[in-house]
Design goal:
This is Transposase (putative) gypsy type domain-containing protein. This protein is mainly α and about 350 residues long. The chain has one domain. Helix content is about 40%, strand content about 10%. It contains 13 helices and 7 strands. A 3-stranded antiparallel sheet has the order 3-7-4. Strand 1 and strand 2 form a beta hairpin. It starts with a helix and ends in an 8-residue tail after the last helix.
Length: about 350
C-alpha cells in the first residue's frame, strides 16, 4: 500500500470515528445524558435535564387568532411573546425581582401568555383582571409592583395601559420620581407631563413622550430602545392585590388594556398647574444641563442612592452637581422644619 493510500485510509477512518462520536453524542443528548471521561480515565455519565413543553402549550398554536383589533398597528398585534412558554417565564422570574420590598408576593400572579395572546388584547374571556408588562420594565427600568399613586396617575392622565407607554418614556417617569424624592419633592403626574408633549398615532402603537426642547431636563434613556416587544407576560391581580390595583367599586386604578384614544398633550401652561406642581416644576427648571436619565434609573438598584445620584450629576456637569447638593441641603432643612414624614426620601 502506498503512503498516499495509507494517509487516505487514515483520514477516512478518522472521519468515520468523528462522525460516530457525533452521532453518539447527539443520541445521548436526546436521551438526557452525555458520555464523558473522568480524571481517572474511567467513562462517566453526565445527566442533563430534558425539558419538554407541555402539550397544551404546543396545542395553542392551532387556535384561531383573536379579531377586533384592526385599530392597532400591525407590528403590535402580530408580535407574539417569548413567554408563551411557562418554563422561560419561570426561569426569568427566578433571577429578576418584580415585587417591591416589604410587599407580599401573593398580590399578583405572574403568568405566561397563550400563543395567540397579544400585548394589545383586552380582557375578553378572562375570569380575573390582568394587565401585561414587559420584561424590560423590571430588568432595565427597575419598575416594581405595585405601582405607586404617581405612576398610576400618569397612566390615567395619558389613558394608556402599562405596555402602551414606550419604555423610553417609562424611563423618564422613573428618573423624574427618583429626582423628586431625592429633593423631598412630591412627584405628581401633571408636574411630570409639563415637560412633555404626546402625539398619539393611528392605528394605535406605543405612545412616546416627546421632550419639550426649551424646558426638558432629562436626556433620553436610549436613542433606540430595542428588543423589548416580544418579552411580555400577564400580571393577574389576586384578591390580596385588589386594594393596590382596583378602586372600591371594582374599577381599575389605571387602564389595564390598550386604548384607542390616548390623550394628546401639547404645551401645557404653567397656569394650568397646581401650586404644588408649580413648586416641583420651578425646582427642576433650576438645573441648567441635561440630567442623566439612565444614571438616575440605575439608582433604584443602588445601595447608596444619594452618592450615586451625585456621581451621575457630576458626569453631566459640575453645575448640576453643585445645584443638586445646594437644593438638597435646603430642601432637607425645610422638610425637617415642617416635620414632613409623608414624602418618601431615599
Amino acid at each position: 500500500m502506498s503512503s498516499s493510500d495509507s494517509s487516505s485510509l487514515s483520514a477516512s477512518s478518522s472521519s468515520q470515528s468523528i462522525e460516530s462520536d457525533r452521532s453518539r453524542d447527539d443520541r445521548l443528548r436526546g436521551e438526557g445524558m452525555s458520555a464523558g471521561v473522568g480524571t481517572s480515565g474511567m467513562p462517566m455519565e453526565v445527566v442533563r435535564e430534558v425539558r419538554e413543553d407541555p402539550p397544551e402549550e404546543l396545542e395553542e398554536s392551532n387556535w384561531p387568532a383573536k379579531g377586533g383589533y384592526a385599530w392597532v398597528a400591525s407590528d403590535v398585534r402580530e408580535q407574539s411573546s417569548l413567554f408563551r412558554w411557562s418554563r422561560l417565564l419561570n426561569s426569568w422570574l427566578n433571577c429578576t425581582p418584580v415585587i417591591s420590598r416589604g410587599v407580599s408576593g401573593d398580590i399578583v400572579s405572574l403568568e405566561r401568555v397563550s400563543a395567540i395572546d397579544r400585548v394589545c388584547h383586552g380582557q375578553e374571556g378572562a375570569t380575573e383582571k390582568f394587565f401585561y408588562m414587559y420584561m424590560c420594565h423590571f430588568s432595565q427600568l427597575h419598575i416594581r409592583l405595585p405601582f405607586d399613586d404617581f405612576t398610576m396617575g400618569v397612566l390615567r392622565a395619558l389613558n394608556v395601559a402599562p405596555t402602551q407607554l414606550h419604555p423610553n418614556s417609562w424611563a423618564y417617569l422613573q428618573a423624574f420620581r427618583i429626582l423628586c424624592e431625592s429633593l423631598y419633592l412630591e412627584p405628581s403626574p401633571y408636574a411630570f407631563l409639563y415637560f412633555y408633549d404626546t402625539r398619539p398615532r393611528r392605528p394605535a402603537t406605543w405612545l412616546s413622550l416627546i421632550s419639550r426642547p426649551s424646558i426638558s431636563r432629562l436626556d433620553a434613556f436610549s436613542q433606540s430602545f430595542k428588543h423589548f416587544k416580544d418579552g411580555y407576560f400577564k400580571v393577574v391581580v389576586k384578591e390580596g392585590g385588589e386594594p393596590h390595583f382596583l378602586n372600591a367599586d371594582g374599577s381599575t386604578k389605571f387602564p389595564f388594556s390598550w386604548t384607542n384614544n390616548p390623550l394628546r398633550y401639547k404645551d401645557i401652561g404653567v397656569e394650568e398647574l397646581s401650586s404644588g406642581d408649580k413648586e416641583v416644576v420651578g425646582m427642576l427648571l433650576i438645573f441648567v444641563d441635561k440630567l442623566p436619565t439612565k444614571g438616575l434609573v440605575r439608582v433604584y438598584n443602588s445601595v447608596h442612592p444619594i452618592i450615586n445620584i451625585e456621581g451621575h450629576m457630576a458626569q453631566s456637569g459640575k453645575k448640576n452637581l453643585a445645584l443638586f447638593q445646594t437644593l438638597r441641603k435646603e430642601m432637607t432643612a425645610k422638610a425637617k422644619e415642617a416635620g414632613k414624614t409623608d414624602v418618601p426620601n431615599l
